Amino acid sequence: MTTKPSKTLETFPNPQPGRDYTIRIKTPEFTCLCPKTGQPDFAVMHLEYVPDQACVELKSLKLYYWSFRDEGAFHERVTNEILDDLVRATQPRFMRLTAEFLVRGGVYTTVIAEHRKDGWTAPVAVQLP
Amino acid sequence: MTTKPSKTLETFPNPQPGRDYTIRIKTPEFTCLCPKTGQPDFAVMHLEYVPDQACVELKSLKLYYWSFRDEGAFHERVTNEILDDLVRATQPRFMRLTAEFLVRGGVYTTVIAEHRKDGWTAPVAVQLP
Amino acid sequence: MTTKPSKTLETFPNPQPGRDYTIRIKTPEFTCLCPKTGQPDFAVMHLEYVPDQACVELKSLKLYYWSFRDEGAFHERVTNEILDDLVRATQPRFMRLTAEFLVRGGVYTTVIAEHRKDGWTAPVAVQLP
Amino acid sequence: MTTKPSKTLETFPNPQPGRDYTIRIKTPEFTCLCPKTGQPDFAVMHLEYVPDQACVELKSLKLYYWSFRDEGAFHERVTNEILDDLVRATQPRFMRLTAEFLVRGGVYTTVIAEHRKDGWTAPVAVQLP
Amino acid sequence: MTTKPSKTLETFPNPQPGRDYTIRIKTPEFTCLCPKTGQPDFAVMHLEYVPDQACVELKSLKLYYWSFRDEGAFHERVTNEILDDLVRATQPRFMRLTAEFLVRGGVYTTVIAEHRKDGWTAPVAVQLP
Amino acid sequence: MTTKPSKTLETFPNPQPGRDYTIRIKTPEFTCLCPKTGQPDFAVMHLEYVPDQACVELKSLKLYYWSFRDEGAFHERVTNEILDDLVRATQPRFMRLTAEFLVRGGVYTTVIAEHRKDGWTAPVAVQLP
Amino acid sequence: MTTKPSKTLETFPNPQPGRDYTIRIKTPEFTCLCPKTGQPDFAVMHLEYVPDQACVELKSLKLYYWSFRDEGAFHERVTNEILDDLVRATQPRFMRLTAEFLVRGGVYTTVIAEHRKDGWTAPVAVQLP
Amino acid sequence: MTTKPSKTLETFPNPQPGRDYTIRIKTPEFTCLCPKTGQPDFAVMHLEYVPDQACVELKSLKLYYWSFRDEGAFHERVTNEILDDLVRATQPRFMRLTAEFLVRGGVYTTVIAEHRKDGWTAPVAVQLP
Amino acid sequence: MTTKPSKTLETFPNPQPGRDYTIRIKTPEFTCLCPKTGQPDFAVMHLEYVPDQACVELKSLKLYYWSFRDEGAFHERVTNEILDDLVRATQPRFMRLTAEFLVRGGVYTTVIAEHRKDGWTAPVAVQLP
Amino acid sequence: MTTKPSKTLETFPNPQPGRDYTIRIKTPEFTCLCPKTGQPDFAVMHLEYVPDQACVELKSLKLYYWSFRDEGAFHERVTNEILDDLVRATQPRFMRLTAEFLVRGGVYTTVIAEHRKDGWTAPVAVQLP
Ligand SMILES: [Ca+2]
Ligand SMILES: [Ca+2]
Ligand SMILES: [Ca+2]
Ligand SMILES: [Ca+2]
Ligand SMILES: [Ca+2]
Ligand SMILES: [Ca+2]
Ligand SMILES: [Ca+2]
Ligand SMILES: [Ca+2]
Ligand SMILES: [Ca+2]
Ligand SMILES: [Ca+2]
Ligand SMILES: [Ca+2]
Ligand SMILES: [Ca+2]
Ligand SMILES: [Ca+2]
Ligand SMILES: [Ca+2]
Ligand SMILES: [Ca+2]
Ligand SMILES: [Ca+2]
């Protein structure tokens, strides 16, 4: 069974659209290329979102991340672009992407971007003791 | 002494209904089947709630989780369903279920769903320094 | 020097009643008996409070916890009862008791109960960066 | 694509039989049934071995572990049986199986069994500072 | 179902007496009384052994530890006594008991005692890299 | 070069009084005497503050903590007294002292006291994702 | 290829100025000299900011930190100065610098300073459960 | 400055060939392709060796690891091949390669291979207490 | 009840002199004075020994450590002296003292000294897998 | 009080030359320059030794490490050179230096070198259980 990288993000219907709930997906295997030097960069991707009508399908998410393997990508730009692609595909109520890059030149960089659907407000957070 | 899995959730009367307080129950031994591949999935279940008139009985909770051992279940759907069952059985003031699934295809997924009773608001949180 | 378990909670005058401040006392050595099976249960007790006129004396707190060694006690009930006893003895501005029970039947249970004095509000929390 | 549990352990030829080297395979998802109570038991399986002519194929190892899901199995016996099956299938120079069971009745049990091929002795261990 | 503490250690036949293998059993819930002050002491008990013809039954081990709950016991003496009782009951090839007591007077004490059967020597240890 | 304990807290001018910023100073080497038994007590001192016109000089802070080495001091009282001394010396916009005492009688105690200057309010906290 | 320390902070255009997002950059290799004793001081620098039109270029940030290697610098002053330089170069919506100095005289010091652009307010924080 | 992946391992003369000493090099950024599915695999590479006349140059080692980015490679085979390449290039007295692969199918695999020069024996290890 | 520091180390008879076993005693509260500067030094003391006819009494050990509170003591010398005192008092088969001093001048120092009784050899160590 | 870097390593007489014992000194603040790029390198230095007639004086060790601040130094060479200097100054029975460099180019390097005095053999190591 051979699979291939793909820019297509597949979704499935949210099984519980009547409730605001959270889905967290951690992928420690993101890699792309540094546009300046051509050398590989690596990151751990943390996605968390409140779905609306659609959830992102896990395997397609993995193939989507894979599609960056041979692309040049700056840290700040690629984080925002991936978030935009995921928002376009799933139209979530809320989505946050945290891209935690492995050390480069002795420096550790993390980029975090969020999207909130127009008109949606988070349920009042209950902080249990 | 033989016990069996069961969909019945037993409860006992809340010994202190006059106070909003928190009960946390962690169960690291949840397993079900992947509806697509038929292979086993595993999760750690974190339940936390503010009881109203009823508390969930621990042994019955364990047998209830056990009842999913031979069932196919998608991550997002099963988390919401378990929360619904627990809400139906205990009618809590507040309940949150965090289902932390073990890695699948290099991807770590966690689903968190909450229920709040109509008209209930959380006590103002006191954050001691 | 022999000491004995005791239900009496001794106090001493709060040395600084003009200020709302926090006292935290962790006791990893609480044990009681399960009312159903008679078997020992164990817990770590986390007490935190803002004293008013009285502070709980540490040695008497230890003897008080000891007094549960031969008593049957359900998790939810005993946490609320101990909080009630401590509130009665010290009349604090705020008090929280976290009872973190050791695993039973593969399940980890924690119960957290709070008391707030009538009319007292917590100082505005300062969250330094 | 549906897969099924299986008692068959598949192997592939050791790509470097001229060298004694180590393969470690950790599987956190073993579950079987307690023969006394019928309740599920869970374990993390740690396999480490020095292959001779054959290596165990990972997917078949996973299906093999899965085959215990509906079987009753005592901790000590099942650890020795799995080791025996793996030795029979791969005829390794050395093999060790560590079965780390999740807590039962407040007690944590681990069973470790080893097999050494007749006439094989481990290379002198080099302990670098 | 009520159970009681007991000095009787039950055993079952070693399912694999033809092999030297290791069984580790950790029990974090040991408590006895200090013979000087009468106050409770607490310990985590780590038992590890190579069985010969008999294995110690887990539930009976738990009831045996429970039997010290109301007994006065010095750290050094009780560790040696428990080892002696376990050796008498199971006649193991090798046994080690590590009693890790909780802090007393600002001091952390651990006592470790071992028994080796006459004529038994440990298999040559294989230290995989 | 011999130095001595001292109750004098020296300060230096805040280099940036135009900005509310935080200074954190952890000192793991505080010791005093228990007023009841005469035995030594130990604590880790965590000081955090927003300076106004003066900052506390580090060496003088160390000598100040040292001055408690031969003094009897109850946990609750000494924490409040040290805070009062530090407030008197530096007149900060905000100051918090956390005294984390080492275990005594199996019990872990921490005392936390705060001071806020009249009329000062904390800047709105920015919680970056 | 030889590089040199430099006080110049280079920037590049923010690829997504339409969104408030976070960039975190940790540099564990800051060193300067203590103005009193001339001895080296070391710190881990944590920078986090919400860019406006410009992002700080990583290599130039590293050379900028390097420029302090032979300069005398007090903890409180240098943290504020670096923040001021970074604000001047990037004009961010929000910026926080945490300078975590290695232990000096048994004392651990951390200084945290923030800058907020006039008129900018942080997006309402969404705290997912 | 653009760099490229390369199979060439460059070396430099061992600055201290008169002494057996250890060099450890950890590289968390190895990636190759699974020959069965074509999907990316990831590993952390731990190299440790006692050099003889040559040491491996760090940058060339990095480019060498990079050269596997588009190659299919089985875990066991690639670990042995990389060790063989490194031995050929540096002719070390001793070398060990530990390839710690990220989870695949819920299974964690590590492969460890060693090479010892003919006639070389490790210095007697000094184990300081 | 007032206690005092004391140079006298009290012992009690070894309850099991027929067996070589280990006693470990950790004391995180040692303090003395630096002979050069007069400033306090702090250490965590780790004592481990195989008793012969006598065991050291815990409370007297604590008072003995306390006796260094006002004494000047170099790290290397005081570790050896304490070991000598403990050996003189208990005549153990084997004893090791590890003095782990808190950081001074950015430097962490640990001193470890051992004593072995003439003619005593350690039992062959059994290393269970 | 101004101090300066220095290549001179001062010693003091070993207070207990009749015993083989261990001294460990960790210094997390070593920095030098990369001879290729001129950029700063950083390392944590772990020194451990069995003294003969002389011990290294801590402050002079710190000034010695400081002397590398403006020197170019390759990882492998500088570790061996520092060990040689320390051996020359103290003539120890045994000495080991572990230089743990901070990440460079995504690669973590550690170099460990040892010296053993002619004719000295380590005492038989006692491994307590
Ligand atoms: Ca990683
Ligand atoms: Ca992160
Ligand atoms: Ca688990
Ligand atoms: Ca979680
Ligand atoms: Ca807890
Ligand atoms: Ca284990
Ligand atoms: Ca415990
Ligand atoms: Ca232990
Ligand atoms: Ca400490
Ligand atoms: Ca604390
Ligand atoms: Ca550091
Ligand atoms: Ca910090
Ligand atoms: Ca590893
Ligand atoms: Ca240590
Ligand atoms: Ca390090
Ligand atoms: Ca290291």
TrEMBL record, chains A, B, C, D, E, F, G, H, I, J:
Protein's name according to its UniProt entry: NADPH-dependent 7-cyano-7-deazaguanine reductase
Keywords, alphabetical: Cytoplasm, NADP, Oxidoreductase, Queuosine biosynthesis
A GO cellular component entry from the record: cytoplasm
Chain residues that bind substrate: 56-58, 75-76
Classification via Pfam families: QueF
InterPro entries: GTP-CH-I_C/QueF (IPR043133), NADPH_dep_7-cyano-7-deazaG_red (IPR050084), QueF (IPR029500), QueF_type1 (IPR016856)
Protein family (similarity comment): Belongs to the GTP cyclohydrolase I family. QueF type 1 subfamily.
Cellular location(s): Cytoplasm
EC number: 1.7.1.13
Location of the active site: 34, 41
Phylogenetic classification of the source organism: Bacteria, Pseudomonadati, Pseudomonadota, Gammaproteobacteria, Lysobacterales
Record field: catalytic activity: 7-aminomethyl-7-carbaguanine + 2 NADP(+) = 7-cyano-7-carbaguanine + 2 NADPH + 3 H(+)
Record pathway: tRNA modification; tRNA-queuosine biosynthesis
Function: Catalyzes the NADPH-dependent reduction of 7-cyano-7-deazaguanine (preQ0) to 7-aminomethyl-7-deazaguanine (preQ1).
A GO term, aspect molecular function: preQ1 synthase activity
Record Gene3D superfamilies: 3.30.1130.10
Biological process terms in GO annotation: tRNA queuosine(34) biosynthetic process
